Structure formats: structure tokens, C-alpha cells
Amino acid sequence: MREKFREIFGKTDDIFREYPMVLLMAFLAAVSFMATARGNFNLNHNDFVFVKFGLVSCLGISLMFGLKILSQRIGKGILFEILGVIFLILFYYLLPETEKYFTEPYAFLLIPTFILSHLLVSFIAFFGEKKELNFWQYNKNLFINIFLTSVFTGVLIGGVELAILAVDKLFDFNFNSHYYLQTFYFLAIFGSCFIFLLFNEKGLQDLEKDGNYPLILKFFTQYILIPLLLIYVVILYFDGAKILINWELPRGWVSYLVLAYSIVGILGLLLVHPLKQEAAKSWVKIFSKIFYYTMIPLIVLLFIAIFTRILQYGYTEPRYFVLLLALWLTAVVLYFVFTRRNTIKFIPMSLFAFGLFALIFPYLNTFSVAKRSQKTELQKILVENKLLENGKINFAKKVSDTIADEISDKFKFLAERKAGDFLFKYLKANDQKIFAKNIEKADFYKIENDIRNRFSNIENTNRKTGEIRLELVSLAKFESIENFDYMINVPYSEENKFILNGDKFQINNQQYKEKLLTIKISDKEWNLTPFILQTLKKYEGQKGNIEVTEITAEKDLGNYRLKIVFANLVNEKMDNVKMLNNGIYYSPPILLVKKK
Predict the structure, then answer these.
(1) What's the pLDDT score for residue 270?
(2) pTM check: above 0.85
């Protein structure tokens, strides 16, 4: 037993010496997210700083691991770590200062960057290396270690969380709920990183060494993955034949199905790479030979599907990335079909190059192309529908609801991407003031609703489905409690029970039931559903955000004076779609209580 402990502590010491920056990034990320897990989890300015720092630190985990692997190959570890830290600092300042500006475009910066950092790990130590089997062994071992890390981390988190729950319930400690979330963050980020490094032992030297092909992986790829892919490609070919017979354009989701088949198929080829030389595995050899040829007609179908959407609606970041993946798949197919001495390293390296191009190449990166395209589309819509008078939008002109929706959607899209100056020129002076106010508040949904509601002569095209959303927003951000004894937060709960001054209180706040909100004191009940419905009914037929002075109601119930304070009320409906309780919901209100 003593030897076992000595061995474990010895490995731990090795990991801290070998991967200090990786562990530091994991620790900083875990602590950053733990700092946000408190109270009611509503982020304030300081919390968003922690979120930003946590996201950048998470990016630093994979980046620092990749740079460490590279330094194990060529040395210069300290230099690479300094460069990595500089990159992370610069990336941190690319993100917005406050949460309200953390809009959709940043997702298209963060997600691809995280993917690129992991792709970098897969090949960074193999530039110029001709030993392809070592490259395959390295990535196979990484793949297995990631899987094992997920299993071990899941068991660890579940066990520790259950232990905390047991101590809490058995000994009546009444732990705050944020302790569970903080524990999850620490174990999921720092714990998983530490476990992963334990599996990697000495790093590159152990990861690229020859090893037996895992039997489970062999069984999975041969008897499950490849047969499923063969069935899947047959289905896609039948769909392509149906499109040709009916002579119709492919539906939008076809592109995602083709991408799924292509990417999973390439992953399958990588997994069976050493097996394709074994004569006994005939279908593995057949699949390896025919896969890239089966992709050629599917790539044609993919280009038709994506250009159908682009030509109709213009570029957005998702469409740009789908097109980019289509171009990458084309490059991969051409490379493996026409190059005799090919290498599987081309797959991650080329994908990394395409992804880097999409993020940083001047003028042609995803953000520039999407913004430029939507500006052009907006101009085209306004000109084709003759909505411009002296260069300004005439909101009194008759317009269909689809066009009004499209214009307001493009205003929101461009406002989120800091194209306010471009949009200003289409608005008259009065509209500019309102638009500027919403831009300053970063209320992009209000921008969309305001532009939509500006059109006073909208023709209903009787669309089968359409969303109607009304939100009443209280301007009263503070509520005086001077005349009340208690202030109680009202959470989402079926039976929130407590004792106050010897009286039994029960608050049922379940918005999907017939009674939206009820407050019961002993045997007396206050049903707030009629108040909520009547308040919303006053604005029936309107949509978007409407600011009201306050949303409050008062009532004497038993020995108490009660006042309920709402921050908002939302009524969301979808034509021909039955929604729970007519789609009415709201943020948790506050209850003020005074004993008479």
C-alpha cells in the first residue's frame, strides 16, 4: 500500500513539473467559474469579468498542452509558453467588456477558436515528421485518454456531489445550492484536466509509441460505425435521386446531413487507418477505397443546398462556415483521390488552415463577409420594395409581413455587428434617436421589434406559422419596502412552504399549470392568474417590448397586507402551436409582506 501511495504521489509530482501552465490554466478557469456560482446566478459586471477570464483560461488549457507537446519535440518550452500567454491576453481583450455586448457574433469567434486549439494539439508536434504510424498512435492515444477522462470525471463528480448531498441531508447543514455548482466547476475543469494529464504520463514520448490496436475500438469501427455509414450513404443517395426525379432544389437540412456523413466518415477512416492493410478485413479495405468517391456527388448536393440559401438570403456566419466546410471537404477528396503518396496528417492540418482563414483573413473572414452581405441584402430589399424616399425608409408604405420581418431581422443582425452608422442613414431624425438609445443599451431585440412596429401598413400574408411575442417590462427598477416588514423572493417552485410569525405560507409558482401563481396563508388563497391575464390583455394585438411604469398588485390576505412586484410579463404565441398556459411566463417576482 505504501508503494502504491508513493507511486501515485510520484506521478502527481511529475505532472506538476511537466505541465505547470496547463494546470494553472485549468485552476484559473475553475476558480473563475466558481466565482460566478453564487446567489441567484444572475450575472453582474464583475461576474462577467470572471466568465470572460474563465473562457480564455479554458482556451489556454488546450493551447498550453499543445505548446508543451511541441516543446517536447523541439525544445524552447519557455518561449512557447510566453507566446501562448501573450495570445491569451490579446484574445481576452477581443471579448466585450460587459455582458450586454456579448452577442451572437462572439459565439462564432469562440467556438471555432476552441476547435482550432484542439486541432492544433493533434498535429503540432508532427510538422516534417514522416512517421505516419506515430502520428496515428499519438492521436489514437489522445482519443482514448479523452474518453477515459470523461468516464473517470463523471464518476468523480457524481460521487463527490452525492457525498456532499448525504452530509447536507443527514447532518442538517443546509448547504447553499451554489456549493454543488462550485464543486461541479472545480472537478469538471481542474479535476478532468488533472486526470487527463495522469493518463498522458510523460507526454509525447508515451503518446506516440507503438501499441496494440484496442479491441473495443476495432469492434466499434468494423461492426458498428462503418456499417452505419454505408446505410447512411445509401439513404443520402436515394434522397439525391428523389431530388433529381422531382427536379427540385434540396432542402436546407440536407447540407447538415451530408456534413455529418462526411465528417463522421473521415473520423471512421482515421480510426481504421492501420486496419486497411489487413487482408482479413475486406469491408474495411473496400470502405477505405470507395469513401472519397462516394462523397463526390454528395459534395455537389451540398454546394447546391448551401448556395440556394446564400443566393436567397445572403451570407451569415453559419452559412459561411457550412460553405467553408464544403470547400474543405472538396480539398480533402481531391487530395486523397488524386495524390498517390498521401498522408492522414493532411486532414487536421487542412481543416486548421481553413478555420484560421475564416477567422483572421482580411476582407474574406466570416465576420466581414457576413456583414457586407447582409448590408447588400438590406439595400436590395428596400430598393425592390420601393420603401426608400430621399434615402430614408418610409414606414407608412404598404409592405408584407414577411418583408417587414426580414428588414427588422437584418437591422438586429447588423446592429449586433456594430454597423449602426450604416443603419442610421436609412432612418429619419426621430427614428434615429430611438435607434441610438437602443444601440447604447445594446437592446438588440428591442431594435428588431421597434423597426417591425414602425411599419404602420403591414399586409398579412396568412402564413401558417408565425411567432407573436409581447413582453411588458417594468420601468420601476427599485421597490420601496418602507411600509412592509418582509421581502421574499418567489422562485419557480410547486410548493414553496415556510412559517412566518406562526402562520403557514405556501407559494405555488408553476407557470405551466392552470393557476400561474398562487399565494396561500393558512386556508386563504390569493390567485394572481386573473391579474396577470388582465394586465397582458390590455396590450392585446401588440408585439415586442413595451415599457410600463410598474407591474404590481396588492391584497389583504388574513392578517397580512401583500404586494407582488413583477419585473416583466411575457406572452409568447406560435400560430397553430399549442403552448403551455398560452405561452405566458415571467421572471421570478418579489413578494412584500406586512403584518396588520
Answers:
(1) 85
(2) no
